Amino acid sequence: MIHVKGVTKTFDKEIAVQEVTMDVKQGSIYGLVGSNGAGKTTLLKMLAGIYRPDQGEIFIGGEPIFENVAMKRNVVFISDALYFFPQVTIEQMASYYRSFYPNWSDERFETLQRVFPLEPSRKIHRLSKGMQRQVSFWLSLSCLPSVFILDEPMDGLDPVMRQKIKNLLFQDVAERNMTVIISSHNLREIEDMCDHIGMMHEGKIILEKDIDVLKSDTHKVQLAFDEEQKEEKILNDLTIVHKEKRGSVLLLIVRGEKDVIERTIRAEKPLVFDMLPLTLEEMFIYEMGGVGYEVEQILY
Amino acid sequence: MKSNKSFINKGMQKQNMKQHGWLGIVFFIGLLFALPLQMFLLASDIRNRDSLVIENVFDIAYPFQFILIIFLPILAGIVLFRYLHVKSAVDMMHSLPIKRVHLYLNHYLTGTLLLLIPLWLVAMLLFFVRDISPIYQEITNGDIGIWTLVMTVMVLLFYSVSIFVGMMTGISVAQGILSFILLILPTALFYLIHANLAMHLYGYSRGYVMDEWSTYLSPIVWLSELNYREFSYLPLIFYALFCVIFIVLAYYLYQWRPLEMSGQTIVFEFLRPIFKYGVTVCTMLVGAVYFDQYPHDGWIIFGLIAGSLIGFLVAEIILKKTWHIWRKKLLVQYGVYASIILVLSVLIKTDVIGYETRVPEASEIERVFLGKDPWTLQDEQLDEEDIFIQDPTFIEEVRSFHEKIVTKQPEPVISNHLYEDSYVIAYDLENGSRLVRQYHIPMEESEEYVGSLIESKPYKTFFFELDRWEQAPIETITFVSQGPESKNVKITDENEIEELRHILKYDIYSLTADDLIGGEPTWGSIKIETETTLKNEEAVYMSWNKSFAEVDEWLRRNDYINEARIVPEDIDTIDVIDVSSSERITYPEEYFFREKEYDLTEIQDEELIAEALQHSRNFGQADYVVRFTLSNHGYFFGTLRTEDVSEAFIQYVE
Lengths: 300, 654
What we know:
The complex is a heterodimer of chains A (300) and B (654).
Chain A: E1 2-11, E2 14-24, E3 29-34, H1 40-47, E4 55-60, E5 63-64, H2 69-72, E6 75-78, H3 90-98, H4 106-112, H5 129-142, E7 147-151, H6 159-176, E8 179-184, H7 187-190, E9 196-201, E10 204-210, H8 211-217, E11 218-224, H9 228-237, E12 239-246, E13 249-255, H10 258-267, E14 272-276, H11 280-288, H12 292-298
Parallel strand pairs in A: 3-8, 3-9, 6-7, 7-8
Antiparallel strand pairs in A: 1-2, 1-4, 4-5, 9-10, 11-13, 11-14, 12-13
Helix pairs in contact in A: 4-5, 11-12
Chain B: H1 2-5, H2 10-34, H3 36-44, H4 62-80, H5 87-95, H6 100-129, H7 141-168, H8 172-200, H9 213-216, H10 219-224, H11 233-256, H12 271-291, H13 297-320, H14 328-349, E1 365-371, H15 375-378, H16 384-387, H17 392-408, E2 420-429, E3 434-442, H18 443-455, H19 457-463, H20 466-469, E4 474-481, E5 488-491, H21 494-510, H22 513-516, E6 522-530, H23 531-536, E7 540-545, H24 549-557, H25 561-564, E8 571-585, H26 589-593, E9 600-603, H27 606-615, E10 620-630, E11 635-640, H28 647-653
Antiparallel strand pairs in B: 1-2, 2-3, 4-5, 4-6, 6-7, 8-9, 8-10, 10-11
């Protein structure tokens, strides 16, 4: 659905995005993480057709997105800094969007009112920051976009509302095969919703992973054996990414299929054996190996 | 209109009107106050009824109109395109599925409606309000039409310029300021360059400007003169054309505008050096002009350096938006700039193009003008046929004067312009071009350079405007005396006028260079009214030279002399101070304020008084200063030179 090829963007001689290449499949939720100033926002604004890339190409649905009205009708972007016209009400803003997005659905707008407990006749500027965010989701989702680009969208939302919005996104992805690109400086905030993660640092994507593959492929294991040999055998048989010993307990991050690992270990009759869930963060840190130090700097 | 419909986005128009509609209302109310309301007030005010002249719409509260017509369109450009300068608005508006060109056109359209609807409504009101009072009877439908047309073009031009500038900057305040600068810059720059060239090029005429052209360069300057200047369509057509050019340029700039640069003073990188060095050049020229008032080249150089340095730093501060701009690179940049300017100044000073020394060949010259000031050349009322001279001998004389002066290049008298004679030479060349030079010659050297020229018939014909009265039917000749005694004689008798016409002509042709140079001795002025001047022209005025001997004789013979000017019989005594240093004297009375410091010689001898009166001048190089005391106790002052007075006078004073 989204195809980015060698995109570079420079601001006043400072490189914001450097030769980024990425692909996002239709119906997937792609999470873009990275520290402040990593270039996430710039990349997203280029994806939304706002900024013109200095080099490289961006295609959405096979067409270049910049100044492409037909394609942009299917793309909705929520910026990290929201903008509403002065003194405008939710209703008026809705009618403004209606005049631009042909897919706009009044039905959807009304349905969503159940999720967002706000009066459409209220002036947006009088609302709190979190409520304004809700309005932006409400309006955007009513446009029935096929590509939804979100820049730090969870800022200022309470946990209940976050969950509601995540559910709405899942629903649209499932029902309408919507593609979502979402950025955050906090991996934990979006790890439970993304199926792909791209990590940006200093303008480059330093890591891009399919989370399902990652999850089925990497495991955290706690072990204790009565004999040293058993331990060594295990270490030789399995692909170990990371090893740590705390007293007699061995903590391993192992790559491989879950069944195979379990079988191999059980065969040696361990005194203690636990397979623990791995957080996305840990996965990245261990996965990165050599660049691990860098990753630890990025994630927090 | 069909093709237009496709770009109009109703949702956007509705939102724009809702958000920016106040502009239209403010403009409408402003115009109501400036015109219809003002017209009611003027009509009901009977106090100034007689002095009030209202010939067209520009005569009604014009300053108020002028301010509205400039400010509102520029403000509209700022307000409507503010979405380009607010970061969050930039993102929101450009994420919408609409091309930039349509965003541009829709916003342009809203602004145009908000400006033109109030303007045209008020124009329509004018048709009705005009009938409330007879003082507006001279305003025709055509006048209202022209006013509406001018204002429409100007409003759209200012609005378009504001948008054009808005596309280049990322700050709304900068948009406003730069729009004004851009609108005035062409004229201002023209004058600055002009004034600077005059400082450095010998013979460059500071006052001579290529006709009105330079004020046309700035629409604001042109508009500011509309209430007293003749209206012409040509500049208006040019402004309309420029309006279109700005609309198109703004469109292309928008296409290439880096949106992420909102908040920067200048968003296009390639424009930043142009801005920086443009500001530097302008302030440099201003600096030089500012210090030109001091008679020393050092000050002008100081002005150039200080001006350019200030401009360079200020431009950098504006671009970087901080005053902490110090970097070594700046030194290099300024150094390069200074070197280029230095090379340019050397080129100008050494006169590589031969500007200072160029004297056209006689064969190139079609006709020539010699006058005292450049304004005569630009006076629309004068017929060029009358002021230019084709006589080959005269052309040759002007040429040799010109050659002499460019070889010798006498230094002008900087400290006091009274002591220099200014001469403007203009050649109309065979190739259709015009070459104009102006020279300032110290009074004492004038005779050496231009003596034979100003004694020549063609020059006197031009200088005393003979062609306006030599043949024409003269109605009156008036002699007006200067000084404390206001005397005058008006001759209306036909026979007397005929006599005078010939006598005056004879006297004029008899004048020597000495009679015409510096503080020429005069009795007062002579005013000649002809049939034509009485109708629609200014009368002919000339100095009443003391050397008009035949005129004097005629006045005496016809018993007019006592009424026409001061005569020796009016004078009781004169006091003379011998200053004998032959120095330049501007105000002879100054010596008498401190009379105790000098030896005063009182003279009561009638013959000596007559002599002093006949030869005294108003100012200039002199050996004596004189106070004339009238029998009615009034007095006046003059200067005398030893060469003008008799041996008896000199001895008496000694």
